[in-house]
């Protein structure tokens, strides 16, 4: 992203009343102007959030260390100690040691058998922010990436309930990203966590991500579904509403066939799950795949 596009992006955030500039990638710290752009966002009054995989150059890390924790969040998408490289794990620990309370751990589930317990140990070891961001590996519209299959997503809820109990005992808050739905969890769990119940099914809305060339997309998973130009008059509300209308027109009701008759959806507690997952049902073979994974007939 060149400087002119970045400045236009900051102006867009200002017009939209958004107080935070989020740096995503790829690995955003590899951008040759990363430090300059972070300083520019801070100088314009924005808080900064950086999403990183932990491969961070010493210069980028040194620059982030100078920022106060109330102006900076570093979301570290964590590796799995059981499967990932020890070199990557050490790089991530180095980020945690250097940035401490600025670091919020994140984990994206790519398999139906996650092992997130090590995150609680990392928080205690390095004095990290007591909050964990959990996400799902979503399908990319029109692509063939590795993602969590529909039935695996729905089975994940029981495992997350157990982890949520452990996190609660440790005083750690869980932040569930888009794509989670109330039907993944037991009614008892949702009653015990009313804030989560109010938000878990309604977060799949157009985020509005800005691409390096200046166009905007609804989100990364929907990057191939369409894009719009970012003009000097664009606001988040206006662009988001247009994406919302377009997606509602093109997509079926919900990520699963059961969504059409779902009580949570009828009560306005769920929008039907990830839009990119809803798009899976547009494929000619989607009914067969969903039937095989759910154990029902097409």
Strand and helix map with partners:
Blueprint: H1 3-16, E1 20-23, H2 34-43, E2 47-52, H3 58-65, E3 72-77, H4 86-99, E4 103-109, H5 118-126, E5 131-136, H6 150-169, E6 173-176, H7 187-192, H8 194-199, E7 209-210, E8 215-217, E9 228-229, H9 236-250, H10 263-266, H11 275-280, H12 286-294
Parallel strand pairs: 1-2, 2-3, 3-4, 4-5, 5-6
Antiparallel strand pairs: 7-8, 8-9
Query: How big is the Rg?
Result: 20 Å
> Proportion of β residues?
5-15%
Give the spatial strand order of the biggest sheet: 1-2-3-4-5-6
Q: What is the count of helical runs?
A: 12
Q: Structural class from helices and strands? A: alpha/beta
Topology as H/E string?
HEHEHEHEHEHEHHEEEHHHH
Mean pLDDT: 89
Low-confidence stretches: 286-298
Biggest sheet statistics: 6 strands, parallel
Distance between the termini: 45 Å
Task: Report the principal-axis shape.
Answer: globular
Instruction: Bin the helical content.
Output: 40-55%
Describe the structure concisely for a colleague.
With 298 residues, the chain is α/β, with parallel strands linked by helices. Helix content is 41%, strand content 13%.
Explain this structure:
The protein is of the alpha/beta class. Helices cover about 40% and strands about 15% of the residues. It contains 12 helices and 9 strands. It has a 6-stranded parallel β-sheet with strand order 1-2-3-4-5-6, with helices on one face. Strands 7-8-9 form a 3-stranded antiparallel β-sheet, with no helix packed on it. β2, α3 and β3 form a beta-alpha-beta unit. It is globular and about 50 Å long. The N and C termini lie far apart (about 45 Å).
